[in-house]
Amino acid sequence: MARDDRLRVQVLGPIRALDAEGHDRTPDGVLQRRLLALLVLRRGHVVSVDAAVDVLWPVDPPLDPAAALQNHISRLRRRLPDGAVGSVGDGYRLEPARVALDADRLAAMVDAGRLDEGLDADLGSVLDAWDGPAYPELDDVDAGRTEAVRLEDLRVRARELLAERRLTAGDTVGLVAELAALVDAEPLRERPRALLMEALVAEGRQVDAQRAYDEFRRQLADELGNEPTPVLAARHAQLLQGVGGSGAARPTRLPVPASSLIGREELIEEVVALAGSSRLVTLVGPGGVGKTRMLLEVGRRLALVGPPVVLAELASVDARSAVEAVAVALGIDTRAGIDPTARITGVLGDQELVLLLDNCEHVVDTVAAMVDEVLLRCPGVRVVATTRERLRVGGEQVSVVPALPDDGPFSAAVELFVERARSVVPRFEPDDTDRDRILELVARLDGLPLAIELAAARLHTLELEEVLAGLDRRFAVLEGGNRANARHASLGAAVAWSYGLLDRALQDAFVDLSVFVDPFEASAAAAVCGTDERTVTEILSQLVERSLVVRVPSRRYGLLETLRAFGAERLGESGRLALVGARHAHHQVEWVERAQDRLAVPGRPVLAEIDRALPELRAALGWLMDHDEVEQAGSLVAALLDYGVLRLRPDVMAWAEEVLALDAHRVGPHAPRLWVVAAYAAWLTGDMVESERRTAMALEAGQAGSGSVPPEVLSIRGNQALFEGELSEAAAWYGRAVEASRGQSARRIFVAATELLPLGYAGDPSVGGKARALLDEVGEVETPYAAYAWYCAGEAVLTSDLELARTRLAMAIELAEATHTSFVTGVAGASKVSIDARLGDPADAATAYRRLIEHWRRAGVWST
Q1: Is there a contact between 59 and 18 (Cβ–Cβ < 8 Å)?
Q2: How is the chain split among helix, strand and coil, in percent rounded to 5?
Q3: 494, 783, 796, 853: which has the fewest C-beta neighbours closer than 10 Å?
């Protein structure tokens, strides 16, 4: 690692200077220390002779002040490394590149806004070394006093960050005492008070936390005539209601960015304050300015002291699915035929939460209408949104997210470039010349974080001069872009330049990958790019290296929204859109058919996998229907039958209605199964008449085929009889389904389990043996089918052996929870609670019933 030869200067207390070897170079004389402090304070700028004289001798200057100053400069230079203090015209200048200042180090760590274990220790060491007010040598100089006040504020913020770090990590030993001291020193500052309250709660001292709030409220009222922010007031209200636990530990659905946030601390604090006083805050700015990153940090801070925070990412949705995406984020399943906004407002009611909506610009009208309704009908909900244009909803507070400042070689834009460059060149340490080049580069990128990061990533293969020159050439290519929006044009130039540096194979792959609407696996990328998985993995690695593709959890890849849009434009221009769209759609059909088969494989959370794949499957279905590939569309939807039933997704099963509406006679061999899917969709939404009609259509389509009637058709016909109380008829249909499913292990288990229901309800003496035989075959493997079999076996003995039924139902619920089988969780839970109410504690049963009601309510299913 390169040696750091800079002079280390400490100004957090009496000034002190140390060379690279640790030798003390601090001047002995008072005036020379005062002169050094002035040069350090004005580092990088020329201090004129007159200005220096005024500081050194504010009254009674010497007869020849210029000569006296020259004498002190000479003595100071002898103490410092050669060249540290230079002469520039009629003045002197301390070279900033030759100095490492403890105050700069403190500011960089605090402005980063987050800590890791190493930074945590470094920040602690800086605070421990603080020895009195900063710049005491200049306490009678306006600029010195101003800087001392700024640094004192940084010290408080640093202590807040360290306390927040400890609180998040659960390290509360001595934390209350430290925060109490900070509160005493800053009695009117809210963040130390909020952290103290959370530390008290973490130690089980809720009453003391309430007392801390009440004291703060009185002080604000007495001294400033103000009230605490609504965020802190809401946390106090939670304490009054008995809601314990640290705010830092409350669950959220927020991703945790891997990199620090630079240059946004002041704006974040403003937005957090706005979100505390307004129910709708909109972060507005051009693409690539960092709105999403800001939103996540705002959400993280609100979650520390307020109600739960939920994130809905809207980048990959369209106007038809935007509100559904918000419902999914909130854990609310939509219902066919019911307005999804009405579902959201009905479920949320008076709940308190903060809803983060990211990337609203392409669905702004839909989102605005939804937000307006939510704010009107859900008084406890607050919304923070990101978009390129305001929502124009009543009460909206707009916060413009500007580009990063690029007003100097140590500005936030330059520091962002330097930090991101170090991720690809760990020893990157720019000198003055480099910083001037970086300043030019970030200025020409208009300070847009995404553009800066793309440029910094190129240092992996290029020199800084080449990066700057390459960007210059690409700007000329895009000169005829959007003149009305310079930032957008600059971002487009940065992306086009990074794209232009790829070879043809990488360009084609990047463009092809834009067809995905969500993160994808390497196998899916291989299918879309028309190559093998090994080759595409290498391609993806190269695109990740160039920051054009990002890695996401679960060994998946993704494209940032702006990059995906750029690639989609190029895909449309390439003439390959139809080819790539077909590859994508056909791969999704193959994938979901394999997923259907994997439902029977123990230990695989396939239902959850399909949950994540729904946006991609929906896009594929749209492409197939738009291109008249009706049979392939039918294949995709038919494969979702068991998923839709077991996961309680009538909205997904309603896709069958769209395919059948195209042409029910052209879906080929999938017609019977599609009618079954459509029948279940109607049943789960409570429309029994339509479900019966569709069941009849399924039977008709099955009988019209060349082979035997599929077991799924026979099974749902049995369901109709079961719902009507015709137990013998239902058992007969299920028996036929069992015979028709010979050779289909999972299907046979499913229908054999269902056959137990009418037999058990009718008291058939054979049901006990059949249930035991089925459970012996199934065992305790963790699959959705096993969960369903245990449920049916429990139902079968409800009238003959309540304890055995309860044991089997408990096993069904355990397996259902492990495999995300929502249907079994609901029906087995209802039966088990009914037994518990008779054999156990009625109060516990009532509590469990409330949980079940919420389970069915969120699923949007009332018919079961």
Answers
A1: no
A2: 65, 5, 30
A3: 853
By DSSP bridging, strand 381-387 and strand 353-358 are parallel
pLDDT tier for residue 115 given thresholds of 50, 70 and 90: very low
Task: Pull the structure tokens for residue 849.
Answer: 């019933």
Q: Which residues contact 133 (CB under 8 A, 6 or more apart)?
A: 13, 139, 148, 152
Amino acid found at 755: E
pLDDT tier for residue 2 given thresholds of 50, 70 and 90: low
Integer CA distances (angstroms), 270 to 264, 276, 283, in order: 10, 10, 11
**Distance of alpha carbon 107 from alpha carbon 152, whole angstroms:** 11
Token readout for 229 is 């922010």
Average pLDDT, the chain: 84
Task: Say which DSSP state 12 is in.
Answer: S
- Whats the size of the chain, residue-wise? 864
In order of 327, 639, 679, 714, 719, the CA distances from 705 in angstroms are: 40, 19, 19, 14, 22
pLDDT at 335: 63
The Cα angle at residue 303 between residues 298 and 307, in degrees rounded to 5: 125
Q: How crowded is the C-beta side of 244, counted as CA atoms within 13 Å?
A: 9
Structure confidence at residue 679 (pLDDT): 94
Cβ neighbours for 718, distance < 8 A, ≥ 6 positions apart: 729, 730, 731, 732, 733, 734, 737, 754, 755, 758
Cα distances from 247 to residues 7, 210, 354, 410, 424, in angstroms, run: 43, 14, 14, 35, 36
Cβ(601)–Cβ(783) below 8 Å: yes
β-pair type (47-48, 91-94): antiparallel
Separation CA 807–CA 772 (nearest Å)? 13
Q: Cα separation of 157 and 495, whole Å?
A: 36
Q: What percent of the chain has pLDDT over 70?
A: 89
Give tens-digit pLDDT for 479-513: 333 333 333 334 565 577 668 778 899 999 999 99
Q: What token pair was written down for 264?
A: 């946004």
pLDDT, residue 116, reads 47
Is residue 35 within 8 Å of residue 135, measured between CB atoms?
A: no
What are the tokens at 699?
């039977």
266 has pLDDT over 60: yes
> For residues 2 and 425, is the Cβ–Cβ distance under 8 A?
no
Range of lowest pLDDT (376-390, 559-573, 615-629, 751-765):
559-573
The tens digit of pLDDT for each residue in 548-567 reads 787 777 788 988 766 787 88
pLDDT in tens, 304-361: 877 888 889 887 788 888 898 888 788 776 666 678 898 888 878 888 889 999 988 8
SS (H, E, C) 552-589: ECCCEEECCHHHHHHHHHHHHHHCCHHHHHHHHHHHHH
CA separation for the pair 331, 251 (Å, rounded): 14
Which of 577, 596, 578, 683 lies closest to 635, judged by CA? Answer: 596
